[in-house]
């Protein structure tokens, strides 16, 4: 078997053909007898879904730092990039040029720093600038395969970095993993972002997935020269929304130039600058997530 089975092709009129889109029409995506999926999920102790109501709130930054923090604490951790159209998690871990191997008919996730396992659509796109123009059923199929056709092995935590909103990908995940440990909802302090974060909270409730908590990202800019904090996007809105919606507040992550440079350099802030203010907040968020899940 070759990797070509898993690589999208642009040979036909449709921009990309899904690799093995073979779900029977008219049948549910999940059946009780799905041994392959259950076997794969059975090796994963805890699943954390990181979601946001809208784009641009830094959800992937939260996901990558949460996953890295868990790995640095000694947990066997994986991160699954569920953003099919804009997969950037490999870049944030410095593994975007790595090649996915195939062993025993399973994709082998790429290993980043601290043993963190990474799987993303970015590894399977022939050209990095090529768009993935897929509709819902095709995306649902690849998400399913990322769970059952990837050799995750035994994991303590699998962090799922979702695309913005509550569309096809989010619906697929809650159907495939109805017993996920919970969702971490990411927002920024301004009212526009908070409106959509409330929708994410309601979506989680309707899907009967527990809410681990809410993170307020970009909560004040810390000057790298004087250390003074300026509330560019206001501050405290996320905590207020969490209180009003009855959701646990996990913490405020400030804006620091190092967050941008560390992401571009391929090493999350918790590993590249552990003494920074934001890294301390990320670590605190991770500890709160662990406590919520493990008690």
How many structural domains can be distinguished in the coordinates? 1
Reported CATH architecture = 3-Layer(aba) Sandwich
What kind of oligomer do you see?
single chain
The residue-averaged pLDDT reads 85
The gross shape turns out to be globular
Order of helices and strands: HEHEHEEEEHEHEHEEEHEHHH
Number of helices: 10
Low-pLDDT parts are 9-33
Helix content: 25-40%
Q: How far is it from the N-terminal to the C-terminal residue, by CA?
A: 43 Å
Instruction: Write the CATH homologous superfamily.
Output: P-loop containing nucleotide triphosphate hydrolases
Say how many strands there are: 12
CATH C-level name: Alpha Beta
For the largest beta-sheet, the strand count, sense and barrel status come to:
8 strands, mixed
Tell me the structural class.
alpha/beta
Strand residues, percent: 15-25%
Note down, in words, how this protein is organized.
- This protein is α/β, with parallel strands linked by helices.
- It has one domain (35-294): P-loop containing nucleotide triphosphate hydrolases (Rossmann fold, 3-Layer(aba) Sandwich).
- It is 35% helix and 18% strand.
- It is built from 10 helices and 12 strands.
- The strands form 3 sheets. An 8-stranded mixed β-sheet has the order 5-6-2-7-1-8-9-12, sandwiched between helices. Strands 3-4 form a two-stranded antiparallel sheet.
- α2 (59-72) packs across α10 and α4 runs parallel beside α5.
- The termini are far apart.
- Mean pLDDT is 85; it is low at 9-33.
């Amino acid at each position: 078997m070759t990797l070509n089975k898993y690589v999208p092709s642009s040979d036909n009129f449709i921009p990309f053909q899904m690799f093995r889109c073979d779900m029977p029409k008219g049948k549910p995506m999940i059946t009780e007898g799905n041994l392959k999926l259950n076997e794969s999920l059975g090796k994963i102790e805890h699943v954390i879904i990181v979601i946001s109501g809208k784009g641009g709130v830094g959800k992937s930054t939260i996901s990558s730092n949460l996953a890295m923090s868990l790995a640095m604490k000694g947990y066997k951790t994986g991160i699954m990039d569920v953003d099919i159209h804009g997969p950037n998690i490999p870049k944030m871990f410095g593994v975007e040029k790595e090649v996915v191997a195939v062993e025993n008919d399973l994709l082998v996730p790429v290993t980043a720093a601290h043993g963190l396992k990474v799987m993303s659509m970015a590894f399977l796109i022939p050209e990095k600038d090529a768009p993935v123009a897929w509709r819902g059923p095709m995306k649902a199929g690849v998400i399913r395969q990322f769970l059952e056709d990837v050799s995750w092995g035994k994991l303590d935590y699998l962090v799922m970095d979702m695309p913005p909103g509550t569309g096809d990908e989010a619906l697929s995940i809650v159907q495939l993993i109805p017993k996920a440990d919970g969702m971490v909802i990411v927002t920024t302090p301004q009212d526009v972002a908070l409106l959509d974060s409330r929708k994410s909270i309601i979506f989680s409730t309707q899907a009967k997935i527990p809410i681990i908590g809410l993170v307020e990202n970009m909560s004040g800019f810390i000057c790298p020269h004087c250390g003074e904090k300026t509330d560019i996007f206001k501050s405290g809105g996320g905590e207020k929304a969490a209180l009003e919606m009855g959701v646990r507040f996990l913490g405020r992550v400030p804006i620091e130039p190092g967050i941008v440079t560390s992401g571009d350099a391929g090493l999350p802030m918790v590993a590249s600058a552990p003494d920074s203010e934001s890294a301390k907040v990320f670590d605190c968020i991770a500890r709160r997530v662990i406590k919520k899940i493990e008690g």
